[in-house]
Specification:
Elements (H helix, E strand, L loop, with lengths): L9 E10 L8 E7 L7 E2 L2 E3 L6 H13 L4 E6 L4 E4 L13 E11 L14 E8 L12 H13 L5
Parallel strand pairs: 1-7
Antiparallel strand pairs: 1-4, 2-3, 2-8, 5-7, 6-7
Length: 161
């Protein structure tokens, strides 16, 4: 079978749009810079769903692994899975998958939560909270179309302004 006819495979994944504890008075979202790339690659926290896990279970586990806390309140869940293909240069890293299919959650960081990037396997080297209006100045190109759809949904539902 040629690769042109091969069905694409996608890794099940969760992603978190995290608003700060100042929400809803201040609408700013968490982004982090990946530590495994040379250039600035800013994104939302995300990670794979392990066998037997629900998406919300994976969300809490991934947040703890990536930002050192899962002290969040789920505000909304995107109703659809969002898929994207890995760039060609990243394909071998994620083999055997061609991309990821993601379930997005909008979560609010609890006031007592303490973010730390110094985790067992650090995925990020920097983070910040940014306004929705400046978010896309940071986000890596391949994530922008999905992030726009996800954020538009959360806006339409009245959670983001």
């Amino acid at each position: 079978m040629s690769t042109a006819n091969k069905a694409k495979t996608y890794r099940p994944n969760v992603a978190a749009v995290i608003v700060s504890p100042r929400y809803p008075q201040v609408c700013e979202v968490f982004i982090a810079n990946r530590s495994d790339f040379r250039n600035d690659v800013w994104q939302f926290p995300q990670g794979g769903i392990d066998e037997g896990e629900t998406p919300s279970d994976a969300l809490y586990r991934e947040l703890l692994e990536e930002i050192g806390t899962n002290e969040v309140e789920i505000l909304c869940e995107h109703p659809h899975w969002m898929s994207y293909d890995f760039p060609n240069k990243a394909t071998k890293k994620r083999y055997p998958f061609d991309g990821q299919t993601q379930k997005y959650f909008l979560v609010k960081l609890k006031p007592e939560a303490k973010i730390t990037l110094d985790t067992d396997v650090p995925e990020f080297n920097d983070y910040r909270f940014v306004g929705i209006d400046t978010l896309f100045d940071y986000i890596t190109y391949m994530k922008k179309p999905i992030y726009k759809k996800v954020l538009d949904y959360f806006k339409k539902e009245g959670f983001l302004s």
